[in-house]
From TrEMBL:
PROSITE patterns: RECA_2. ATP binds at G100, D101, P102, G103, I104, G105, K106, S107. HAMAP family: RadA_bact (MF_01498). This is DNA repair protein RadA. Residues 71-219 form the RecA family profile domain. The gene is radA. It comes from the Bacteria.
Length: 458
């Protein structure tokens, strides 16, 4: 009988301890240690070739120049937004992880895509959460055709491996990774060790057999994918499905992509027949803008390689208590606090006795520093109760000394603003070039916050 070895592993950072600890000494998280038991195997000193060596025939180092690089032919879907996020299409033999809140539309998106691909490829949909009957009812509700897509309600990885070997599919969907169970491990389903081992096995299947595997994952209350952090390092692509439950729009956001640009976004709308792609997100975010309103500024944000125009709204009101309240939605809270301090110090606005509410409309999250100038102008507009011209938009990072700093890809931002119909765009002075004067829109360079406030609000 094999000897068993017991260890305790932190679910947050992967730190290993010989005994249980209440607080992780590495990351500081509380109550995150999980018991893991594994059999100690006596390994032979004589090395055996790995599955990768058997597959490729390469058992020794080779020079980079001698390696023949074969360009991967991507598989295009009918959803251009999904193709964009994946870097131009699905790469055969890749392992893609999709995370998101419950009910956001992960399974719906996968069912729609796989139903389409099943007309040309062999697809296996493995579900650990729904029966075949439930999946069929959802497919009928979405109006999907009855095709040859294979449904397999199972959680045992041993049986799943056998079915994949027998069917030899081109695409496999695992819904979800937290419900899969590796019977060789003596740990609870959904535990860190189970998730890690199942993902490792799926990665081998994807790479050795050139099968594209889509894995659906749950998220924690903090918004991260449940399971060990190593899960995101093992896969080729990590996609997050984001959205507000009170809005119909969903954003598919790539945070890691070995085959394309990270931080790309694709936008979808949830309707009765499933998810429909939104090809012009800027129009969606600006459609409901109220004319002659104060505290509203338009920013040209860049998500991956896509420029998007979004509206930032600010409401500044006198505080009724001794401590001013700050609330943000879609904008980083700490960044907003920093910009308020800069605006008070460099812009001479008395904000310490004012409640400030900030939001990015439409449920989008704006995290890049280039939105700083628009945030500052929206706050100043609400504070002074002066309207910003509806044909103005802003781009620029704000420093602690009040300077407006350079941003990247200014040409793409200006082009998007001109295409959407804006007449004037404020950009950092150091981004200004002579060629931008013929961009089809008035480009106004600003060097500091006081200068921007004087030009826009007088």
């Amino acid at each position: 009988m094999a000897k068993l070895k017991t260890k305790y592993k932190c679910r947050s950072c992967g730190y290993i301890s010989a005994s249980y600890l209440g607080r992780c000494p590495n990351c500081g998280a509380w109550n995150q240690f999980e018991k893991e038991t594994e059999a100690v195997q006596n390994r032979s000193t004589k090395g055996s070739p790995s599955r990768l060596i058997k597959k490729t025939g390469i058992s020794e180092p080779v020079k980079l120049g001698n390696v023949k690089a074969e360009k991967e032919e991507r598989i295009k879907t009918s959803m251009a937004e999904l193709n964009r996020v994946l870097g131009g299409g699905i790469v055969p033999g890749s392992l893609v992880l999709i995370g998101g809140d419950p009910g956001i539309g992960k399974s719906t998106l996968m069912l729609q895509i796989m139903s389409e691909l099943a007309d040309q490829y062999k697809v296996l949909y493995v579900s650990g959460e729904e029966s075949a009957n439930q999946i069929k009812l959802r497919a009928d509700r979405l109006g999907l055709p009855a095709n040859d897509m294979m449904l397999y309600p199972e959680t045992d990885m041993e049986d799943i491996r056998q079915q994949i070997a027998d069917l030899e599919p081109d695409f496999v969907v695992i819904d979800s990774i937290q419900t899969m169970n590796e019977p060789s491990l003596d740990s609870m389903t959904g535990s860190a060790s189970q998730v890690r081992e199942v993902t490792s096995e799926l990665m081998k299947i994807a790479k050795m057999d050139a099968i594209t595997v889509f894995v659906i994952g749950h998220v924690t209350k903090e918004g991260a994918i449940a399971g060990p952090k190593i899960l995101e390092h093992m896969v080729d692509t990590v996609l997050y499905f984001e959205g507000d439950e009170h809005h119909a729009y969903r954003i598919l956001h790539s945070v890691k992509n070995r085959f394309g640009a990270a931080n790309e976004i694709g936008m979808f709308e949830m309707v009765n027949k499933g998810l429909q792609e939104v090809t012009n997100p800027s129009a969606v975010f600006l459609d409901e803008r109220l004319p002659k309103s104060t505290g509203s500024a338009i920013v040209v944000s860049l998500e991956g390689t896509r420029p998007i125009l979004a509206e930032i709204q600010a409401l500044v009101t006198p505080t009724a208590f001794g401590y001013a309240k700050r609330t943000t939605s879609g904008i980083d809270y700490n960044r907003a606090g920093l910009l308020l301090a800069v605006l008070e110090k460099r812009g001479n606005l008395m904000l310490q006795n004012q409640d400030v509410y900030l939001t990015a409309t439409g449920g989008i999250r704006l995290n890049e520093p280039a939105v700083d100038l628009a945030v500052v102008m929206a706050i100043a507009s609400s504070y002074k109760n002066q309207e910003i011209l509806p044909t103005d938009c802003f781009v620029g990072e704000v420093g602690l000394t009040g300077e407006v700093r350079r941003v990247n890809q200014i040409d793409a931002r200006i082009k998007e603003a001109a295409k959407t119909g804006f007449k004037r765009i404020f950009i950092p002075k150091h981004n200004m070039r002579a060629s931008l004067k013929n961009a089809g829109i008035e480009v106004v360079p600003v060097a500091s916050i006081p200068q921007a406030l004087k030009v826009v609000l007088g």
